[in-house]
């Protein structure tokens, strides 16, 4: 063997070693099984065969799954065992008859669950399986909409804290393909809404055919809405564009979104505090502190976040007593929203402040109607 050949062989060995060490998957075999499984940590085990094409396709996804749970290695493990040859004794012990088979083991070593053999082995589906059994979340960034199948459907859709809009689609369906970009954009818009979930079930296939039968899905796309208050599905019969999805969610979930996805001009406003804002604005200077105190007292009795914005505007006007602060604040909010550099969540917060500021600009200002109108436009969302 030449020096160059030896050098190349050594490089390959070192590279391979690095790859093995870099993996967060626990490599199992008959010798270490009883020392690692059932010794205090629960975990997922992939029973695989080196000759199995499905196993080969799963390997990089499974490695990624282990990486997303690297932070929880003190609590659980993601492991695998070559079960066709080296681990045949372990395979027989747990009745494994096909590859890959993924089983969830409790901390005492008993099998508690098995990933459905017909479920799609996506990173998010497997992460949901681990979470369901361990109550430990992965480090995966959440999808704006969820991909569900028969094995995960009820866990998500029947959650009594969630309003869920489910799109049943088929890969061959052109209408479904045309709909998905709008569906994805709306999912992104409502991603920060804690009680709203958009989900997709793709079929019909062997694993999802039961869902199609259960909900009498005859054509694609079919969309069903499951309210958090009533899990009897309601068919969505409106258009498949972004604005109509948003209009429907506004109606069913109490959202306050404009057709473009941003908050509308009513978002964040409270009628009782709108009245106080107008009373404050119209009051003589010496009566404004009394109106402010009334607003503080009412706010203290409510467990809401929004009143603090009304109170802040009143406080600043008490310090200034002119329209100057209103104009300056309107311009500041205008700049932030026009810049477009804030997140959806940040833009929502700014829009709520602008909407509340708008109330103070309405009716009975000290400046001309034209000046007030300009301030209203700046503060209200024509930004």
From TrEMBL:
Alphabetical list of Pfam families matching this protein: ERp29 (PF07749), Thioredoxin (PF00085)
GO molecular function, one term: protein disulfide isomerase activity
InterPro entries in the record: ERp29_C, ERp29_C_sf, PDI, Thioredoxin-like_sf, Thioredoxin_domain
UniProt domain Thioredoxin: residue ranges: 3-132, 134-254
Root EC class: isomerase
Single GO BP term: protein folding
Coiled coil: none
Signal sequence region: 1-22
Keywords: Disulfide bond, Isomerase, Redox-active center, Signal
EC number(s) reported in the record: 5.3.4.1
Claim: Signal is one of the keywords in the record: yes
One GO cellular component, as annotated: endoplasmic reticulum
Catalytic activity: Catalyzes the rearrangement of -S-S- bonds in proteins
Superkingdom field: Eukaryota
SUPFAM superfamilies: ERP29 C domain-like, Thioredoxin-like
Region span, Disordered: 364-383
Protein name as catalogued: protein disulfide-isomerase
């Amino acid at each position: 063997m030449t020096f160059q050949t030896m050098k190349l062989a050594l490089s390959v060995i070192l590279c391979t070693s690095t790859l093995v060490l870099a993996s967060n998957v626990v490599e199992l075999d008959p010798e270490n099984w009883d020392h690692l499984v059932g010794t205090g940590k629960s975990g997922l085990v992939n029973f695989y065969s080196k000759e199995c094409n499905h196993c080969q396709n799963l390997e990089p996804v499974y490695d990624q799954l282990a990486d997303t749970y690297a932070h929880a290695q003190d609590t659980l493990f993601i492991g695998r065992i070559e079960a066709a040859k080296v681990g045949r004794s372990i395979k027989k012990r747990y009745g494994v008859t096909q590859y890959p088979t993924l089983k969830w083991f409790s901390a005492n070593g008993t099998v508690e669950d098995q990933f459905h053999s017909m479920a799609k082995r996506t990173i998010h589906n497997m992460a949901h399986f681990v979470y369901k059994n361990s109550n430990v979340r992965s480090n995966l960034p959440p999808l704006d909409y969820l991909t569900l199948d028969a094995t995960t459907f009820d866990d998500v859709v029947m959650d009594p804290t969630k309003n869920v809009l489910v799109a049943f689609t088929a890969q061959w369906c052109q209408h479904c393909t045309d709909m998905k970009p709008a569906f994805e954009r709306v999912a992104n818009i409502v991603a920060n809404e804690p009680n709203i979930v958009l989900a997709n079930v793709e079929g019909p296939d062997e694993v999802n055919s039961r869902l199609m039968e259960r909900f009498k899905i005859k054509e694609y796309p079919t969309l069903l809405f499951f309210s958090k208050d009533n899990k009897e599905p309601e068919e969505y019969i409106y258009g498949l564009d972004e604005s109509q999805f948003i209009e429907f969610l506004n109606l069913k979930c109490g959202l306050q979104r404009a057709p473009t996805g941003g908050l509308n001009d009513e978002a964040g406003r409270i009628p009782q505090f709108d009245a106080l804002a107008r009373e404050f604005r119209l009051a003589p200077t010496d009566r404004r502190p009394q109106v402010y105190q009334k607003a503080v007292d009412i706010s203290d009795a409510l467990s809401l976040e929004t009143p603090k914005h009304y109170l802040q505007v009143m406080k600043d006007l008490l310090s200034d007593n002119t329209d100057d602060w209103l104009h300056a604040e309107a311009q500041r909010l205008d700049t932030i929203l026009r810049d477009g550099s804030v997140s959806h969540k940040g833009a929502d917060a700014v829009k709520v402040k602008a909407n509340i500021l708008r109330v103070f600009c309405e009716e009975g200002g000290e400046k001309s109607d034209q000046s007030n109108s300009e301030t209203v436009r700046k503060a209200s969302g024509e930004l």
